[in-house]
Amino acid sequence: MPPIASVTIHLLPDGSFFLQLGIFLLALVILNRLVVQPAMRVLDWRHDYTDRSRAEAASLGAEAARLDDERTAAITTALRQAHEARVRRIARAHKEAEERIVEARAQAKEIEASAELSIESSEASIVRDMNDQVGRISQAIVDQLIHGS
User: Fold this and answer.
1) Is this model's pTM higher than 0.70 or not?
2) 58 assigned to some structural domain
3) Residue 35 falls within a domain, yes or no?
4) What is the phi/psi pair of residue 7, to 5°?
């Protein structure tokens, strides 16, 4: 059996421990001042910047929604007004067409009445002329019969 090496266990720290602890604490203070605090300031600044950017984005989103609502309302109003104007123009055109139709019918009746009067007067004139011609022809026949036979 080989001899067992003797190992001594020290439960209390020795002088090098305090030196190591001092170097560690000094390194911790220096790193805290040179690395950790600047890094924390950068992280805080980024956090604040992100919050401000989100708030600004929310504000711009609300403004965009409001502008979109205004645009939609303006388009709706314009379409409604255009439709109303179109309906008025159509109604006015129908009224004008009806007035023209009534005028045309009245003119047609006047022309028809005038044509009937003209036809009746022409017919009466033709009948008179025919009666005169029949009378003259009858007289000529009678004269020829009496004188020519």
Assistant:
1) no
2) no
3) no
4) -120, 135
